[in-house]
From TrEMBL:
Name of the molecule in the record: Putative ABC transporter C family member 15
Key word Transmembrane helix present: yes
PROSITE patterns registered for this protein in UniProt: ABC_TM1F
Any GO molecular function: ATP binding
Top-level taxon of origin: Eukaryota
Family annotation (SUPFAM superfamilies): ABC transporter transmembrane region
Amino acid sequence: MGWEDMLDFQTAINFRLLQFQSEWLQQNLPCLSEHTSIVMQLSFLGISVLNFLKNNMGLICKQRTKFPDQGTEKHGIGVRFSTTHKTSMACSLFLMGTHFVVLLLLLNGSVTYCNHKVRAYLSESMQVISWTISSVAVYWIVNIKSIKFPWLLRAWWLCSFFLSIISVAVDTHLRITYHGELRLQDYAGFLSLLASICLFGISIRGKTGLTFIVPNGITEPLLNGKGDKHSEGKIESLYGKATLLQLITFSWLNPLFSVGIKKPLEPDEIPDVDIKDSAEYLSHSFDERLKYVKERDGIINPTIYKTMILFIWKKATINAMFAVISAGASYVGPYLIDDFVKFLNEKNTRSLQSGYILALAFLGAKMVEMITQRQWIFRARMLGLHLRAALISQIYKKGLVLSSQSRQSHTSGEVINYMSVDIQRITDLLWYLNIIWMMPVQLSLAIYILHTNLGMGSVATLAATFAVLLCNIPMTTIQKGYQTRIMEAKDSG
């Protein structure tokens, strides 16, 4: 009876939660798009104001030491507008006008699904203000001579795209539920979604495409402060100029694959590395951090580990986030597999909507897992190469200034092993370091799923897991001893 009472109690709680969720959706779904719109636009307007104040304060501080802008004189003859810039301006003005028309309809008494008129007025008013700021920002890009759209503008276009999807989806659902007719606001919503899709694509690409005509009649693209020129015969780095979408899908490699699939690649057909991935840049960056550690600790010969941590911690943190998200997304499928089996066995009683939700959950989780997994693998290898290049350059520069006494205490074989073996071990550590962050997430989710389906039987699984880990400790200790002896033998050689 005890177990039956507990099951009845759990069933009652689940029923109450479902009932509460259904009532909450019925009350809040009509105003969901308005609530989301107000929150997003308040954030956008607040960040815009802070960014405006920051830029103006910077101009005031620099006013006393103002120099003539040679770039303005150089590019001041004329500008050639690109299709991207014209499209972004047209879409921004169109969205501003569309929301202004919708606001006028609301003021004239047009009916909305949301019962809170003030929220609807506030949402549309803020939309008009936000798209006015967006239009002004797109126009002002010509004056600041930027090769890319500002990050804030691109973020707003991305958010407005998802906001348009939510708005159209909610309105469509409510219209089908209440058997309503198409209104002028609905047509405006569909047109706004099309304009948001265009801006979404532009924000992913990120480039304005503007070119300026110099006094000698030559048209050249904006360099945006990058004066470094690649050596003749070298193709510009594909990774360095890749857009966000290309970085996610690795499509920046397609030009290289299109040539390599036809014939073996020649040296002049291989793109150059980006300036931030070059050994010279990485060595200089490592030197700067080493100098900072010396000044902070007041030590002439500080430990190299602190410098390494300062050199990699930002990218390593981002990489760890990708690894943790990948580990978490990989367990969405096992968690939902029981619901999927129940849906297949109860197709006559379960709604088709729940099946679509399950399919979308599986698809979304797999896409997130695939993207994040490839990102953390690629970034871990790239970060290892960065650290390898920096450390090898440091050892090489140190070897150039070694005294005769130091050369006698460090054999040539030992120095070679530093560069070929020890540094490789350190770079491999960056790869295995992500396993440390992933293992607790994977273990916790696995135990939770087992506990949900098996109950107390999951405790035995946890005990067996820890037993296997404890049995591996003696083996790894012995392996470490053998590896140390092998390295000592190589150094003596």
